[in-house]
Amino acid sequence: GQSLEQPSEVTAVEGAIVQINCTYQTSGFYGLSWYQQHDGGAPTFLSYNALDGLEETGRFSSFLSRSDSYGYLLLQELQMKDSASYFCAVVSGSARQLTFGSGTQLTVLP
Amino acid sequence: DAGITQSPRHKVTETGTPVTLRCHQTENHRYMYWYRQDPGHGLRLIHYSYGVKDTDKGEVSDGYSVSRSKTEDFLLTLESATSSQTSVYFCAISDERVGGSYEQYFGPGTRLTVT
Question: From the candidates B43, B96, B106, which should be mutated to test the interface with A, based on the most A CB atoms within 10 A?
Answer without folding.
Answer: B43
